Amino acid sequence: ETGVTQSPTHLIKTRGQQVTLRCSSQSGHNTVSWYQQALGQGPQFIFQYYREEENGRGNFPPRFSGLQFPNYSSELNVNALELDDSALYLCASSFGTDPRGQYFGPGTRLTVT
Amino acid sequence: DQQVKQNSPSLSVQEGRISILNCDYTNSMFDYFLWYKKYPAEGPTFLISISSIKDKNEDGRFTVFLNKSAKHLSLHIVPSQPGDSAVYFCAASAITGKLIFGQGTTLQVKP
């Protein structure tokens, strides 16, 4: 049984560009949640996808968007990158929306210059 | 508006002693509280949780206490081991499954 994987591990983008981050959920899981962790802070909830539908969104602007595919893997897209978007992006998969069942991936470190 | 706060950025304890990590929250609608442990270059790993209807939950060396009147929870690790050195996050959730995290406390357990 494979755990949650994320790609890429690191990437560097320029302000104004667009980025796509990917997450493969753990086998049997149908829910993916995305979090942003800025340096020295705790993870902040971006949004959650349950069975391919958005199921809750945090306080992030519309340039943060996502998708969940039929195999329950997920993408996070960020348009018009800003310097403050530099952070570790974590995804967590679960079966259903029970908060106790979320398993996190190792994250993607995004640097915006 | 920080709904979950961990006011101690760091904590250092001697191996074998008790580690106590604290967390405060403001929203009385939270129904679950969770503790996660995070090593560098890894995602957070779930440690232990407590429902809002309970005041204590134990799992081996880890015990979480919830004081609803004070809107405060704490994680006790007894005895502390060097492998426990990590960043610990407190998180809270309402029914939606959205987790709200504190800022984290870095625990160092000295041999």
Question: Which secondary structure elements does this structure contain, and how are they paired or packed?
Answer:
The complex is a heterodimer of chains A (113) and B (111).
Chain A: E1 5-7, E2 10-13, E3 19-24, E4 31-37, E5 44-50, E6 53-57, E7 64-68, E8 74-78, E9 87-94, E10 103-104, E11 108-112
Parallel strand pairs in A: 2-11
Antiparallel strand pairs in A: 1-3, 3-8, 4-5, 4-9, 5-6, 7-8, 9-10, 9-11
Chain B: E1 4-5, E2 10-14, E3 19-25, E4 32-38, E5 45-51, E6 56-59, E7 62-67, E8 72-77, E9 86-93, E10 99-101, E11 105-110
Parallel strand pairs in B: 2-11
Antiparallel strand pairs in B: 1-3, 3-8, 4-5, 4-9, 6-7, 7-8, 9-10, 9-11
Share of helix among residues of chain B? under 10%
Strand content of chain B: over 45%
Q: State the major sheet of chain A.
A: 7 strands, mixed
- What are the low-pLDDT stretches of chain B, counting only 5+ consecutive residues below 50? none
Share in helix of chain A? under 10%
Quaternary: heterodimer
Count of discrete alpha- or pi-helical segments spanning 4 or more residues of chain B: 0
Structural class category of chain B: mainly beta
Strand content of chain A: over 45%
Average pLDDT across residues of chain A? 94
For the secondary structure, the number of strands of chain B is 11
Q: What is the end-to-end distance of chain A?
A: 37 Å
Written as H for each helix and E for each strand, in order along the chain, the element string of chain B is EEEEEEEEEEE
Sum up the structure in keywords.
heterodimer, A: 113 residues, mainly beta, four-stranded antiparallel sheet, 11 strands, globular, B: 111 residues, six-stranded mixed sheet, five-stranded antiparallel sheet, 55% strand
